[in-house]
TrEMBL record:
It is a single-pass type I membrane protein. The chain crosses the membrane at residues 394-418. Interacts (via lumenal domain) with lysosomal protein MFSD1; the interaction starts while both proteins are still in the endoplasmic reticulum and is required for stabilization of MFSD1 in lysosomes but has no direct effect on its targeting to lysosomes or transporter activity. The lineage of its organism: Eukaryota, Metazoa, Spiralia, Lophotrochozoa, Mollusca. InterPro entries: NCU-G1 (IPR029382). Residues 1-21 form the signal peptide. PANTHER family: GLYCOSYLATED LYSOSOMAL MEMBRANE PROTEIN. This is Glycosylated lysosomal membrane protein A-like isoform X1. The keyword Transmembrane applies. Belongs to the GLMP family. Pfam families: NCU-G1. Required to protect lysosomal transporter MFSD1 from lysosomal proteolysis and for MFSD1 lysosomal localization. It is found in: Lysosome membrane. Keywords: Glycoprotein, Lysosome, Membrane, Signal, Transmembrane, Transmembrane helix.
Amino acid sequence: MAAFPTMKVFILASILTFVFCDIEKRDLKTWSWPDCEKYNETICNEAKQNGSIVIYVKASSESNDNLHYVFSTIGGPSVVVLRTTNVNANLTFNWEKLLQYNNSLIDGAITFSDPQPNIEYKFAVVFTRLLEYDDTDDSADLDYCEKHLNLTSWNIRDFSMFHWSSDDLKVNASTNTFVFNSTSDVMIKTNETRNGSISFAFSVKHDNGRASDLPRMLYIANETMFDFVIANYTPSFNNSRFALEVVVVSLSNEAASADMSVDLTKSIDDEYTPGVFEIIDWLTNPKQSHISGFFQWKPVSYISLPRGRNTATKVEHSDLKNVDKSSSSAKLLNNTVLLAVFNESLWNGKTVKRMANISFGLPKDGFYIKNNYTAWTAAIGYGTPPADSISITVIITISAGLGLPVLIIIVGGIYSIIRKMRKRSSGYEPINAGSINRNYTQQSD
Ligand SMILES: *[C@@H]1O[C@H](CO)[C@@H](O)[C@H](O)[C@H]1NC(C)=O
Ligand SMILES: *[C@@H]1O[C@H](CO)[C@@H](O)[C@H](O)[C@H]1NC(C)=O
Ligand SMILES: *[C@@H]1O[C@H](CO)[C@@H](O)[C@H](O)[C@H]1NC(C)=O
Ligand SMILES: *[C@@H]1O[C@H](CO)[C@@H](O)[C@H](O)[C@H]1NC(C)=O
Ligand SMILES: *[C@@H]1O[C@H](CO)[C@@H](O)[C@H](O)[C@H]1NC(C)=O
Ligand SMILES: *[C@@H]1O[C@H](CO)[C@@H](O)[C@H](O)[C@H]1NC(C)=O
Ligand SMILES: *[C@@H]1O[C@H](CO)[C@@H](O)[C@H](O)[C@H]1NC(C)=O
Ligand SMILES: *[C@@H]1O[C@H](CO)[C@@H](O)[C@H](O)[C@H]1NC(C)=O
Ligand SMILES: *[C@@H]1O[C@H](CO)[C@@H](O)[C@H](O)[C@H]1NC(C)=O
Ligand SMILES: *[C@@H]1O[C@H](CO)[C@@H](O)[C@H](O)[C@H]1NC(C)=O
Ligand SMILES: *[C@@H]1O[C@H](CO)[C@@H](O)[C@H](O)[C@H]1NC(C)=O
Ligand SMILES: *[C@@H]1O[C@H](CO)[C@@H](O)[C@H](O)[C@H]1NC(C)=O
C-alpha cells in the first residue's frame, strides 16, 4: 500500500512540470473575411456569395509567442498554422489576389504586417477529396476496395467543387467556434436535397482541458478541435462508405524537416472513450517536437446521435504517401490558400508534403445508409500532442488488483517459512518423505 503516495507524488510532479514549461492560456481574436471591407464591396459580396470563406484566428501569448490560424474554404477546406515570435504582428489579406483563382496571383495574398515577425514554423492540413465507394464485399477496407472495385464503384469528389454556405456562418466570439457547411443540393446537383450536409465545425482552444463530447479528447491551448459530419447525405450506392483524402504540408525555417510519421499509442485505459484504447498522432516533424505540428484523432467515429458506445464505428488511416508536384492532389493544393501562405516554397525541396486517406466504417455496421450519418472528431495543433495519462481510478484499480495477490504471496511465503522453521526445530519428519528430501535433511544435519 506504500505505492500510493509515491504514485501521487509522481503524478503531481509531472502536472507541475507541465504547468511551468508551457503556454497554458492564449488570448484569441477572430476575424471573418479579414480585411475584406478595405476592398471594393463587390469583391466582398462576391466572396461571400461564392462561398469563399476565410477565418483568421490569432492566438497570442504574453511573450508574443503567437499562433496564427487561417481557416479557409477557397479551393477546399484548409487549416494553416503559423507560429511567430518576437513581435506582435497580424496577418493581412489581399482579397483581389485571393479571389483570382489564378496561381500566379493568389501567391502572396496572405502576408504579415510590419514589423515582420520571425516565422518559426508553418504547417497546414488540407482536405482535398471526399471518397465514396460501393463496398459490396462489406470489407470496410479502403486498400482492399482500391484493388478490387472497378471505377464504376467509386464516386470521388474534389472538395474544390463544393459550395460552402456563408449565409449561416456564425462565428461565436465567446466560444471561438464556427462551421463550414455545404448542403447537398449545391454539392451533388440533384433535386433530392433531403436537407443533407457536409460540415466542418471548428473550435479554437485557448486553454487546456477535456472535451465534454465523446470521444472526450484532451486538448491544449495550442490547438483547434473540429467535428467532421456527413449528415443526411444521399449516398450514391446502397453499400456506400466514405473516406477523406488529407494532405499535410510542413515547413520549418531550420534545416530540412524530417519525414512525417503517424504514431499509434495504445493505452490500457478507456475511461474517457469507452471501448477505444488507441490514439493517433500524425506528426509533421517528429524529430523535433518543439517545431512540429500535430493532427490527432482517436480511431472512432459515430453513426448517429447521441454519441455512445452503441453508435461507435471504426476509423482507419492509410500509410503516408508523398505528394508529387504533378499529381492531381498537387493541382488541388495549388488552388487553396496554401499557395498564398507558402508561396514559391510550397513546391521546393524543404517543404514536406504527405497525404493519407482516412476512412470510416466497420464490416457489418450497416453501411452509411443505415443511419445516413457519420461524425468524426480530430484536432490540429502545434507542439507536443496531448496524451491521456492513466487516471487515478485506474491506478488504484490496478494497484489493488496487483497489490492484493502480491500481498497474499508475501504473507503466505512468510507464513510457510515460519511454519517450516517451526517444523524443523520440532524434528518432525513425515514418514513418506521422498529420498531426496531425506538425504538433504541428513546432509544438512
Ligand atoms: C467596384 O467594382 C465594380 C465592378 O468591378 C465597379 O463597377 C465599381 O465602380 C467599383 N466600385 C468602386 C467604389 O471602386
Ligand atoms: C492586431 O491584432 C490585435 C490582437 O492581437 C488587435 O488588437 C489589433 O487591432 C490588430 N491590428 C490590426 C491592424 O488589425
Ligand atoms: C464567383 O463565382 C462565379 C461563378 O462560379 C465566377 O464567375 C466569379 O468569378 C466568382 N467571383 C469571384 C470573386 O471569385
Ligand atoms: C494569371 O495571372 C497572370 C498575371 O496577371 C496572367 O498573365 C495569366 O494569364 C493568368 N492565368 C490564368 C490562367 O488566368
Ligand atoms: C464493374 O463492376 C460492376 C459491379 O460489380 C459490374 O456490373 C460491371 O460490369 C463492372 N465493370 C467493368 C468494366 O468491369
Ligand atoms: C455562443 O456560444 C455560447 C455558449 O455555447 C452561447 O451561449 C451563445 O448564445 C453563442 N452566441 C451566438 C451568437 O451564437
Ligand atoms: C448545415 O446546414 C444544414 C442545412 O441547413 C443544417 O441542417 C445543418 O444542421 C448544418 N450543419 C451544422 C453543423 O451546422
Ligand atoms: C431538377 O428540377 C428541375 C425543375 O424543378 C428540372 O428541370 C431538372 O431537370 C431537375 N434536375 C434533376 C437532376 O432531376
Ligand atoms: C427539410 O427541412 C425542412 C425544414 O427544416 C422540413 O420542413 C423538411 O421536411 C425537411 N425535408 C426532409 C426531406 O427531411
Ligand atoms: C502546382 O504549382 C507548381 C508551382 O507553381 C507547378 O510547378 C505545378 O506544376 C503545379 N501542379 C499542378 C498539378 O498544377
Ligand atoms: C438514408 O437515405 C436513404 C436514401 O436516400 C433512404 O432510403 C433511407 O431511408 C435513409 N435512412 C434513414 C435511416 O433515414
Ligand atoms: C505550445 O506552443 C508553444 C510555442 O508557441 C510551445 O513552446 C509549447 O511547448 C507548446 N505546447 C505543447 C504542449 O507542446
